[in-house]
Write a structure and sequence with these properties.
single chain; alpha/beta; TIM Barrel; about 15% strand
């Protein structure tokens, strides 16, 4: 079975390694677009909604990309040769009404599309367009029944059954789009992992990925939250893996975090591979620093994304952004950066001796 998750995907894009060596700028391989910060759920652990987490500290919840700006970005992505676009939050991207048209235009331009969503609006035309054009849809979920779903997300009873219906109908469309679940482990749900996986498998979901809720800005506090439930959680995940077959997989990303987030490097090469466009029409370094001042690359409110990306202003920002100074927090790209920097450090003459 081919792998859906890997930190080594960047190796396919040798032009970007060459650009990093030369100090030039390539179009990003992958862009995360946050079309809106409006959300129809209120998850207690959502970093964009709680005050004590650094992620999204400058986010304005009413921000939404206007239609004209969105289609300008889409056309730029196509002409720049961007390979993939993921729609994520901020808010829930499926709340954004123009999204079906956006997906269709990206797909017509040869760009692969995906979304992270709570799944409440994965129905009707929205579901049809992702079934037709999507590479993957991943639904964030943290519950096993209506009561637990309503408690975690501040929504009404009955919504768990409705999102399960959406998943079942999507799976029944017979699409090649991979339907996955991102299950956020908490004290409330860790004893119900096997039960939840049985439900999701029966719905036709392709895989369930487990990761721990982030409850604090530092690794030690996160580990202190998860340590009392770690053994029981691991046992539940192990039991759930017995459900694995050719159509369903349990993916275990539940583990302790590093307790120190110091970075030994002063350059972030992964900025050339992935960038983030927010609902505020600003470009950010990554999903870990979206809607923060230290993660801001620049605004595209009064200029196109393409013009900004290939500007000297952005080139200098990409070259001088310093993770050792600005990223003393969890970083989703840390292992990728270490690998890229190791490749870039290879002596060109000795590099032939593989």
């Amino acid at each position: 079975m081919s792998k859906l998750y890997s930190s080594m995907k960047f190796l396919r894009f040798t032009d970007h390694l060459a650009a990093l060596q030369q100090g030039s700028v390539c179009a990003p391989v992958h862009i995360r677009i946050k079309p809106t910060n409006v959300c129809n759920h209120d998850c207690w652990y959502c970093a964009y909604r709680v005050d004590h987490l650094q992620l999204g500290e400058d986010m304005v919840e009413r921000d939404t990309l206007d239609r004209d700006k969105m289609f300008e970005i889409v056309d730029d992505c196509i002409t720049m040769g961007v390979k993939a676009v993921t729609f994520s939050g901020g808010g829930d991207p499926l709340v954004y009404k123009p999204l079906p048209e956006v997906v269709e235009r990206l797909a017509a331009g040869g760009i692969r599309v995906a979304t992270l969503t709570n799944g409440a609006n994965l129905k009707g035309r929205m579901a049809e367009v992702f079934a037709r054009h999507g590479t993957w849809v991943r639904i964030s979920i943290d519950a096993w029944d209506d009561a637990s779903y309503a408690k975690a997300r501040g929504i009404k009873d009955g919504d768990f059954a409705r999102v399960c219906d959406n998943m079942r109908h999507f799976a029944q469309m017979g699409s090649r789009c991979v339907l996955g679940i991102s299950f956020i482990v908490t004290h409330d749900n860790h004893q119900h992992i096997l039960e939840a996986c049985k439900i999701f498998k029966a719905l036709g979901v392709n895989h369930v990925k487990f990761s721990g809720a982030v409850v604090a800005n530092d690794g030690a506090a996160n580990n202190a939250y998860h340590r009392p439930i770690m053994a029981a959680t691991s046992a539940q995940i192990s039991a759930a893996k017995a459900l694995n077959d050719k159509n369903f997989t349990v993916i275990d990303h539940y583990h302790e975090l590093e307790e120190r987030f110091d970075k030994s490097y002063t350059r972030c090469p992964f900025l050339q591979y992935l960038t983030v466009i927010g609902a505020d029409a600003s470009v950010y370094t990554c999903q870990d620093k979206a809607y923060t001042q230290t993660g801001l690359l620049g605004s595209i409110r009064e200029r196109s994304f393409k013009k900004f990306w290939f500007s000297e202003e952005n080139r200098q920002r990409l070259l001088t952004f310093n993770p050792a100074a600005h990223c003393r927090h969890h970083c989703v790209s840390h292992s990728k950066n270490l690998a890229i920097l190791d490749v870039l450090a290879i002596d060109p003459e000795h590099g032939y001796f593989v």
